[in-house]
Amino acid sequence: MPALQVDELLAAIQPEPGLVVLMCGIAGSGKTTFSQRLEAVGFARLSIDEIMWQQFGRHGIDYPEADYRGLLELAHAELRDRLAELMAHRLPAVVDSAFWSRAERDEHKALIERAGCRCQIIYLKTPLDVLRARLAARSTRFDPNAPYVITDDILSRYAAGFEEPVDEGALVAVP
Is 60 helix (H, G, I), strand (E, B) or coil? Predict the structure, then answer.
């Protein structure tokens, strides 16, 4: 399937019992905005960034930056528990996380399918220049969805490590 415009893809995704959408994309690609729009039409939304903020506070303020990875693992466990509860009730859900590796996507897809639900990956394929502009604007905020500044160096590392969802049945959207 060819890439769609974000609005076209949003119009095509409707909440249905047991559907779990996994958002996939580099920081700044629009995952949170997209997932919030799905929430507005009936999806339950789970955000890893918001769980981190709620459970542990502010990055580099309420906990040392060095603790981030360990706390992130705890937040992922909380996210999986919340997702399991939604799937037990067959509620449509959207998971707002980067899902940057195929292994992570495969793990969640297996979890979803074991629960008798259907997984749909949505990949927001956003050009680096657009990501840079969005992240520059986001760096002026400090909230659950902008917990720390993503510099050009960090963005370059994210882009280098990101594994595009190829042959995974992902729906692709471009800005």
Answer: coil
pLDDT digits (tens, 9 = 90+) for 15-31: 999 999 999 999 999 99
Question: Each residue of 29-77: pLDDT tens digit?
Answer: 999 999 999 999 999 999 999 999 999 988 888 889 899 999 999 999 9
Specify the number of domains making up the chain: 1
Question: Locate tokens 């906990």: which residue?
Answer: 63
Nearest CA-CA partner of 41 in 82, 13, 19: 13
Q: Which residues neighbour 33 within 8 Å (Cβ) at sequence distance 6 or greater?
A: none
Range of the domain at 76: 4-174
- Please state, in angstroms and rounded to a whole number, the distance separating the CA atoms of residues 49 and 78: 12
Give me the CATH number covering residue 80.
3.40.50.300
Please state the pTM of the whole predicted model. Answer: 0.92
d(CA 165, CA 159): 13
User: How are strands ordered across the β-sheet holding 171-174?
Assistant: 4-5, 171-174, 118-124, 19-24, 93-96, 44-47
Q: Give me 13's structure tokens.
A: 């995704």
141: its two tokens: 């905020």
